[in-house]
Amino acid sequence: MAAEGGAAPAPQSSSNPPSADPAWAHGTVVDMARRKVQCKYCNRILSGSVWRLKQHLAGIKEQFRRASQASRRSFAEEDYLRRIGHHLGQGSGHGSSGQGSSSGGMSTNIPEVPVDIPRDGDPIVGPLDPFLTRRREKQPSIFAAFKNLKICKEKIGRATSRWFFFNSIPANAAKGPYYESMIKTIGIVGKGVEGPTSYEIYNKYLDMEVEDMKAYVSTFERLWDEYGCTLMCDGWTDITRRSMINFLIYCKAGTVFWKSVDASSKVKNAEYLFQLMDNMVEEIGEKRIVQVVTDNAVAFKLADQKLMEKREHLYWVPCSAHCIDLIL
Questions:
Q1: CATH classification at residue 304
Q2: Which of 30, 74, 246, 296 could bridge 318 with an S-S bond, Cβ 3.0-4.6 Å?
Q3: How far is it, in rounded angstroms, from Cα 291 to Cα 281?
Q4: Considering the domain boundaries, does residue 250 fall inside one?
Q5: Residue 231, in any domain of the structure
Q6: Can you tell me the distance from the alpha carbon of 4 to that of 316, in angstroms, rounded to the nearest whole number?
Q7: Which residues, including other chains, have CB under 8 Å from residue 174's CB and lie 6 or more apart?
Q8: What is the DSSP letter of 228?
Q9: How far apart are CA 186 and CA 152, in angstroms?
Q10: CA 288 to CA 246: how far, in whole Å?
């Protein structure tokens, strides 16, 4: 059905379009043999026939400059005409079913279709564009990342240092083997975990450390049985003027601290030192110990002679470091 007094018709295509594609209404064939097409809006000559013309009109690829704003207005006008024609077809259908309609034109009962024709410069946005538009997320710069890391490190440093200061803990404790491990474990665990209480530290976790140390020492006992070991005795005085005697065990795998005895209330004569070392030999195992190392003080020398008389397979060796100290 032809519309009387309707909108202006769409642009006509070239005289002999190669196909019935509606895109030919916006271009002219310049050289069909070479597949050259000229855009009607910007007069640009394109290679690739109607497919390249469509890309040029839509501005799909960056290498094709989009046609002028007139093309977008023309597309909107054509869409308007198609929608009017669709409602005209519906109006003729109603007329055939008994509704009044004009004999040669548009029905007076056809509802108006609001169509917004974009002005020059206004972008054409479809219903799917909000879902297809790629969001531009700003990646944080390396300077911002380092700044945040520096701020976090300062917060940890302030909190840790305050704990050191308040409890009168020497700063050199941070050089210990377990300080960095503590910081890393707290960072890995993250938020929401409370620290241990004083009761848990001196009971639960202390018992766990004792069991771990016993398991560690047991790895050396196999070597003591196979290769033997050396019992070392070292006497010293702490800052409270207590007289301490430490016993250590040496083997090819390393040295293990065994026991410390407070001898402040004892007279460190030969008899007392002999009984003390003899008890250590029984506790560790007589078959494991090959020699005993002490300083060359008179009381230790007499005690070691008694020990060798009782246990003939043992040897006493004076401490070379103590001998050098006496020489110097």
A1: 3.30.420.60
A2: 296
A3: 10
A4: yes
A5: yes
A6: 128
A7: 164
A8: -
A9: 14
A10: 19
**Could you tell me where the DSSP H helices lie in the chain?**
49-58, 69-96, 129-132, 142-166, 179-189, 198-200, 206-227, 270-284, 298-310, 320-327
SS3 145: helix
**Max Cα-Cα span within the chain:** 141
| 176 and 242 part of one domain | no
Phi, psi of 144 (to 5 degrees): -65, -40
pLDDT tens-place string over residues 121-142 = 555 555 555 555 556 666 666 6
Indicate if 183 and 228 belong to the same structural domain: no
- Calpha distance 309→219 (Å, rounded): 31
Enclosing domain of residue 15: 1-108
Residue at 20 is within a domain:
yes
Looking at residue 205, the DSSP 8-state letter turns out to be I
| pTM as predicted | 0.46
Look up residue 174 and give its DSSP letter: G
CA angle at residue 69 from 67 to 71, to 5 degrees?
A: 60
Q: Give how many domains the chain has, as a whole number.
A: 3
Rounded distance between C-alpha atoms, residue 45 and residue 74, angstroms: 19
- Residue 311, CA atoms < 13 Å, CB-side half-sphere: 23
pLDDT in tens, 88-105: 555 444 444 444 444 444
